[in-house]
Amino acid sequence: MRPAIKKFVLIPLAAVAAPALLAALAALVYFKTAYFPDWTGELRVKGVHGDITILRDEYGIPHIFAQSARDAFFAQGFVQARDRTLQLELYKRFTAGRVAELVGKDMLPLDKLSRLLDYRGQAEEIYRNLDPRAREIMRAYVDGINAGYESLGSNLPAEFRAFGITPTPWDVYDPLAFSRQATWNNSKDYQTEYLLMRLAEELGTARALELAPYSAPL
């Protein structure tokens, strides 16, 4: 028998046990209450224009039903903020070059690269060239993320308590900045291209291709 679908509705707002056992029980309670968001009930939030229903299937996958595209994107951000709180925080820190302040100096090279590539500056330029409709969607999505953060209150994932931080609010540039960072991560062939360029400079194109065959023209 399949588990019942879980429903969440957004409504617009105008010392007997051994110490080890106790620790295990405390950890279980902590993770059950502090890490997993509540997927049932109703919640009043600012920023939506109509009722939004979020149904969770047996695998926990959310299905969003909204009365407008804007509210649907708001709900998408809301759900992601509650389901992927730490992931979104890391995305924001990666693109801003602020990972080292969270996990230590070993990440300084990555932070320096992120600032050198200026993901934020690229995002601002992209946003300036978006049409009004795309800007509205971006704003709705970000508003949803921030509303999702707010709905969690102090019931944050364990990692936030371990690091002693709270989620950093998103703005309209953050999704675009992450898209640029993701593009960079998926473009590792730049290392091969650089190597081929140096080989061609030193040995000539023909010899470089013999040493490191490459399909694209040099």
Descriptive overview:
- The chain has a 4-stranded mixed β-sheet, covered by helices on one side.
- The protein has 218 residues and is of the alpha+beta class.
Question: How would you summarize what this structure contains?
Answer:
This protein has 218 residues and is of the alpha+beta class.
Order of helices and strands: EHEEEHHHHHHHHHH
Task: Tell me the strand order in the biggest sheet.
Answer: 2-1-3-4
The stretches of 5 or more residues where confidence is low (pLDDT under 50) are none
**Which oligomerization state do the chains in this entry correspond to?**
single chain
How many whole angstroms does the radius of gyration measure? 23 Å
Query: Structural class of the helix and strand makeup?
Result: alpha+beta
Q: Enumerate how many helices there are, as a single number.
A: 11
Nearest-integer average pLDDT: 82
* C-alpha termini separation: 61 Å
- The total of beta strands comes to 4
Largest sheet: number of strands, sense, barrel closure: 4 strands, mixed
Shape: elongated
Please estimate the helix content: 55-70%
Strand content: 5-15%
